[in-house]
Hints:
The protein has about 80 residues and is α+β, with helices and mostly antiparallel strands. It contains two helices and three strands. The chain is elongated.
Amino acid sequence: LDFYYGRVKDGIWAEWVFPSEGKGLEAVVSITIRKDGSVRINGLEKPSGNALFDRSALKAINRASPLEPPPFEVDIGIRFYL
């Protein structure tokens, strides 16, 4: 599952256009990846405190979807940081 998580994170981060004033911020987004690769965003586990930064993370997940299908439905947290 670690290998799969790395591929998912890399795919999402490739779509992430982060705000320039986001240095030092961190957000964690909880998602469910279904067996067909579709993604449900469950919410922010850890908001950054900066709405623009948080929205950029959510948009990256939406742009990267659908993701590579997992062997079974998985719930993971994707960490965004600068």
